[in-house]
């Protein structure tokens, strides 16, 4: 894995946030985000398979460990603050679990519209094709990159095989879940892809408007202490959020 400084000054920052990319595997996902605070540095992580998705044949846990190595290269000891968008939030969770298991402390985990892998299955390929045939940004972007991208497909395959372990007792980081209020299919009334019963869960999660922003964090309390989770709903959908 590699990294790029997105905001701040690593030498003088009071805290550093390591940002895990979404399915495309690129730190450029975070380019639109404004600086958080002059005292906070934000380091964007790039997938080790960003330019070679055909070599992406590792498990999600192994992928997370490659990111952890890059994080340790930038910051040898904790505490650590981690952030991830979409599936990047799941990888950030696994990285946090690995850091904690090694004796390090993870202070904060920021999940940007990340579905809990213990509750919501990965996007099926038919859903990727659906996204490529609608205006998933509702006119807010001219972004044309296809969702059936080799890196996204490889990431989803790794996610299918991933079984997350809950945080050890007393070790849950303070977790902020930024959750989109709106479904991607809001007001479109287009034909949805045919999926099985399990995949219907993720279709509803990403396509329908959301109203239940309770303390369970969309199932993240299965892995993280519910007392450590704060849910903040924001306007926008899963894609326009970024």
Automatic annotation (TrEMBL):
A UniProt-annotated Pfam family: Thioesterase
Superkingdom of the source species: Eukaryota
Keyword line: Hydrolase
A molecular function (GO) term: hydrolase activity
Thioesterase domain span: 16-241
The UniProt record lists the keyword Glycoprotein: no
Listed name of the protein: Alpha/Beta hydrolase protein
Organism: Dendryphion nanum
Lineage: Eukaryota, Fungi, Dikarya, Ascomycota, Pezizomycotina
């Amino acid at each position: 894995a590699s990294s790029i400084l997105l905001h701040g000054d690593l030498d003088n920052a009071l805290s550093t946030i390591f940002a895990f990319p979404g399915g495309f595997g690129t730190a450029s996902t975070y380019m639109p985000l404004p600086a958080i605070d002059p005292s906070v540095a934000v380091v964007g992580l790039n997938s080790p398979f960003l330019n070679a998705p055909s070599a992406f044949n590792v498990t999600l846990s192994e992928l997370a460990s490659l990111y952890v190595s890059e994080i340790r290269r930038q910051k040898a000891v904790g505490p650590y603050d981690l952030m991830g968008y979409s599936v990047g939030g799941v990888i950030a969770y696994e990285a946090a679990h690995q850091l904690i298991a090694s004796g390090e402390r993870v202070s904060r985990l920021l999940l940007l519209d990340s579905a809990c892998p213990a509750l919501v299955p990965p996007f099926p390929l038919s859903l990727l094709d659906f996204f490529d045939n609608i205006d998933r940004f509702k006119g807010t972007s001219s972004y044309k990159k296809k969702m059936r991208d080799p890196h996204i497909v490889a990431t989803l395959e790794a996610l299918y095989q991933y079984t997350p372990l809950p945080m050890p007792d007393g070790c849950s980081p303070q977790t902020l879940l930024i959750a989109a209020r709106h479904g991607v299919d809001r007001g479109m009334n287009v034909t949805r892809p045919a999926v099985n019963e399990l995949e219907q869960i993720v279709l509803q999660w990403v396509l329908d408007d959301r109203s239940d922003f309770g303390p369970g964090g969309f199932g993240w309390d299965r892995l993280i202490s519910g007392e450590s989770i704060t849910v903040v709903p924001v306007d926008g959908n899963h894609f326009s959020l970024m």
